[in-house]
């Protein structure tokens, strides 16, 4: 294959006063032949402890996975053809974190091609969202792709069991025809999928970690089913590999440049990677959040990707930002570009990447994977583990044990206040909801961020309300804001929240789930599972000394409850 005809997407890096510091680190890295060591998986570039070094070495399979996958394109495309020929009309990919982020990006960035199948992604335990997917498809004509590297993650197993039981009611012993697994060789899930007669099991690669798996079966199987030219995606990724030094010394390594810039900026306090994208690329933010936050957010260090923050004028930003614009060469995207230019003129560091078309995402996945690993070397941390994600999972597991034994979640401590049906749980107090919120937000320092954690059903209306809440906080407090739906963010930015610097204010939103959904074979519902995940994470946040406020919307209703909260925040700030 000749990929030499592909150039990689352009990137401009304007660092202002940080130029000299970034150049000094680049020179130092080049002087010690960092790129050569990187491709040789030299683990002491990141960590010095022998066990941690072993872990680093064992998760670097992503470096060459695009090359490994290229000869397998035919096999994946034949499979997609088989699915179309069998009469399937929909594809639902189910999983968490790295196992579903790439299909989410593809679905938004690409138009479904004429021979592709409509694609939906399920990555939440919210009963309303599960029901929404069930109602959007014709079950017998739907292919369910259960994607889990470890094969032990609770959510994908629950999704698989739920839809398998539904299909069994409709097709009896032939239910497995509608199911495909993507998992690691030898995972427990291989045994289950085999026993249940899954149509196909794609075995991925143990040495490719979840958030670095975009260019493996996890990204490529859904892409091919959706009708994307996966050969072209890989060709562009391989062009980027070469530009990043996979075949020997290179002069301007775009992954090294980006990674050193982000790492050095974070060290200098510019640790909020604020992403600016046109409408068709907003979900790239979800992918980047997972890659960057989960890889770097540990040991009190890290880079926080801020996606979906309303883009303001320079005066609303503190000196904790680096702005990264990712857009299309051919799209003017005037409003964003004008604002980014103003930010640059005001002295903020700005990095801009221009894609020719959506297939360039193949190259960008690889650039960002390299950059994340390089930034982690600057910060001297292991990019491939996620120790604090486990803490929340363990707390949730404990709570679920209680649910199994006693039939319901244990009582939490009493709220500090209940007003108009909303209950407030916090370490700060007040005689009204506005007082509680004021006290909560008064804790914010200038380099802090607000993180909204919504264990609710994602809808366009709720998204708009959460955006309005973020905008209000940004305008009144001039701090970064982030927002995520639980449990999705638990497998992504959740690592940074508990393992990164203690600069977050966490606003958790939960509800009673008036319309719940039973989980087959388990003595609990999706709603209880989701609430246990919220409670488990709250415990993990508190145990690492994080400042939290949980607002339980009870039976007020999700959109109505958040609208009410927004009005209280307006009064409070
Ligand atoms: O693919 P799985 O093994 O099911 O893992 C899904 C996700 O779960 C974990 O929480 C990790 O933190 C993520 O990095 C991972 O992508």
Automatic annotation (TrEMBL):
Belongs to the GPI family. Its EC number is 5.3.1.9. Keywords: Gluconeogenesis, Glycolysis, Isomerase. One of its GO terms (biological process) is glycolytic process. Pathway: Carbohydrate degradation; glycolysis; D-glyceraldehyde 3-phosphate and glycerone phosphate from D-glucose: step 2/4. GO terms for cellular component: cytosol. It catalyses: alpha-D-glucose 6-phosphate = beta-D-fructose 6-phosphate. One of its GO terms (molecular function) is glucose-6-phosphate isomerase activity. This is Glucose-6-phosphate isomerase. It holds the Pfam family PGI. It is an enzyme of class 5 (isomerase). InterPro entries: G6P_Isomerase (IPR001672), SIS_dom_sf (IPR046348). It comes from the Bacteria.
């Amino acid at each position: 294959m000749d990929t030499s005809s592909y150039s990689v997407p352009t990137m401009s890096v304007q660092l202002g006063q940080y130029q000299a510091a970034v150049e000094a680190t680049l020179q130092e890295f080049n002087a010690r032949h960092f790129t050569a060591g990187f491709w040789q998986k030299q683990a002491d570039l990141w960590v010095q402890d022998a066990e941690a070094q072993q872990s680093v070495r064992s998760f670097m399979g992503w470096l060459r996975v695009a090359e490994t996958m290229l000869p397998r394109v035919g096999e994946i495309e034949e499979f997609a053809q088989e699915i179309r020929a069998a009469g399937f009309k929909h594809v639902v990919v189910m999983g968490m974190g790295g196992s579903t982020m790439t299909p989410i990006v593809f679905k938004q960035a690409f138009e479904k091609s004429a021979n592709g199948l409509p694609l939906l992604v399920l990555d939440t335990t919210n009963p309303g969202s599960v029901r929404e997917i069930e109602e959007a498809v014709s079950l017998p004509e739907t292919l369910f792709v259960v994607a889990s590297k470890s094969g032990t993650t609770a959510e994908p197993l629950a999704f698989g069991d739920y839809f398998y039981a539904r299909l069994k009611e409709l097709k009896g012993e032939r239910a497995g025809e509608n199911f495909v697994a993507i998992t690691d060789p030898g995972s427990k899930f291989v045994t289950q999928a085999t026993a249940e007669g899954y149509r196909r099991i794609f075995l991925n690669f143990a040495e490719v970690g979840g958030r670095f798996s975009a260019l493996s079966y996890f990204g490529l199987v859904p892409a091919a089913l959706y009708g994307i030219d996966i050969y072209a995606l890989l060709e562009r990724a391989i062009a980027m590999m070469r530009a990043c030094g996979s075949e020997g010394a290179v002069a301007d390594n775009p992954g090294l440049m980006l990674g050193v810039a982000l790492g050095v900026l974070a060290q200098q306090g510019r640790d909020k990677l604020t992403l600016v994208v046109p409408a068709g690329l907003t979900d790239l933010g979800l992918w980047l959040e997972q890659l960057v936050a989960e890889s770097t957010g540990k040991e009190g260090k890290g880079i926080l990707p801020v996606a979906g923050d309303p883009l303001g004028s320079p005066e609303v930003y503190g000196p904790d930002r680096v702005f990264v614009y990712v857009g299309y060469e051919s799209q003017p995207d005037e409003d964003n570009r004008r604002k980014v230019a103003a930010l640059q003129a005001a002295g903020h560091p700005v990095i801009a990447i221009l894609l020719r078309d959506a297939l360039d995402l193949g190259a960008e996945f690889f650039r960002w994977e390299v950059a994340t690993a390089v930034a982690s070397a600057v910060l001297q941390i292991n990019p491939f583990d996620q120790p604090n994600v486990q803490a929340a999972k363990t707390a949730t597991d404990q709570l679920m044990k209680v649910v199994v034994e006693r039939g319901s979640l244990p009582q939490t401590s009493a709220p500090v206040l209940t007003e108009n049906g909303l209950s407030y749980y916090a370490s700060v107090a007040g005689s009204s909801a506005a007082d509680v919120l004021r006290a909560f937000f008064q804790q914010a320092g200038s380099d802090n961020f607000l993180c909204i954690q919504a264990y609710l059903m994602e809808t366009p209306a709720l998204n708009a309300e959460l955006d309005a809440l973020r905008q209000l906080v940004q305008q009144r407090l001039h701090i970064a804001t982030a927002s995520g739906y639980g449990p999705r963010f638990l497998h992504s930015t959740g690592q940074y929240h508990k393992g990164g610097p203690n600069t977050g204010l966490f606003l958790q939103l939960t509800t009673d789930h008036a319309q719940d959904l039973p989980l087959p074979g388990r003595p609990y519902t999706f709603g209880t599972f989701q609430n246990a995940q919220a409670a488990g994470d709250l415990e993990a946040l508190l145990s690492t000394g994080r400042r939290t406020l949980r607002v339980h919307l009870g039976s007020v209703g999700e959109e109505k409850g958040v609208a009410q909260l927004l009005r209280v925040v307006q009064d409070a700030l």
